[in-house]
């Protein structure tokens, strides 16, 4: 069988789909993975054939700004700090409700005509892939990346998506986008999933979240020597800032434990300034390896990192930086597996006090291990891959 996977052009939207894509290939299927070209190196590193589909979120904002008259055709940059919040909110709706889905639909429509897959497995936050599959008459399966929570701006984005679907000639049953899919692969443990979503009339397939990282990448020697005593810090690949990372490190220094900082692709390590020897800052870390040996995770609230830390049974301090971060932070706290500090309250003192509690109070580790046991009991990607032929029939 020939299967096309499709994820939005961001690490946090592609990595969660790669375990199932690799399991499908291991089961003997011919597998392609469609995403923005900036993610193609990650796809090919996983041994999969990459297909161009869509562009990056920053490009989407540039397009929306130009069409809205905020940028002249020749302008090459949009500084969010120069845009009023209400205008930025409107741009967000246009980017995720229209610009990105239309790009993905156009690119995937061409790819589907060329590749003629038997099934499309698309990331649930990449609705353009669902539109393209529907227009091509190809069965589709949605794949989640975390809790299916609804944020304050999601209703407006949904309204715009339905307008976009209508413009493209896609009939959305009952106005529910997931009705375009035959099933939903849910990698979020039920205890963290939104109860309203669990109650929805949907063919839901539970699958264990499997942390993915590109091959290679040993931990730095100083961190390896601190087995089980270091704090792992990451703000992900989209929302990281040097200022926030410096605040976090400053707050952790009084704990007198080693700190491993994954600066990510947005923040140069040099921007963190000179640090004491026990702080090791690197551009990239093989996250599963870091989680295997850390004592505490300080992170941004991205679904992938949140679920990976829970699967490792680690307490975490969540510092939401946007998107689904606040909802994931609340879910971690409700599970007794961590604490969070919202952006307006972020300070070195707040980080230090919360981290000290998390490392001293065993109840947080107990809460995290409870969720880890739940995750370990979920079916693995190979079990889902075995169901894909029936879903394509």
Brief digest:
The chain has 393 residues and is α/β, with parallel strands linked by helices. The protein has 17 helices and 13 strands.
For this structure, the CATH topology of the largest domain is Rossmann fold
Q: Helix count, per DSSP? A: 17
The assigned CATH architecture of the largest domain is: 3-Layer(aba) Sandwich
Order of helices and strands: EHHEHEHHEHEHEHEHEHEEHEHEHEHHHH
CATH class of the largest domain: Alpha Beta
- Give the overall average pLDDT: 89
Rg, Å, rounded: 21 Å
Helix-strand category: alpha/beta
Kindly, what is the distance between the CA atoms of the first and last residues, rounded to a whole number of angstroms?
10 Å
The biggest beta sheet is recorded as: 7 strands, parallel
Number of strands: 13
- Structurally, how many domains make up the residues? 2
CATH homologous superfamily descriptor of the largest domain? Glycogen Phosphorylase B
- Low-pLDDT ranges: none
Question: In which range does the helix fraction lie?
Answer: 40-55%
Shape: globular
Our estimate of the beta-strand percent is: 5-15%
Q: Describe the strand arrangement of the main beta sheet, using strand numbers.
A: 3-2-1-4-5-6-7
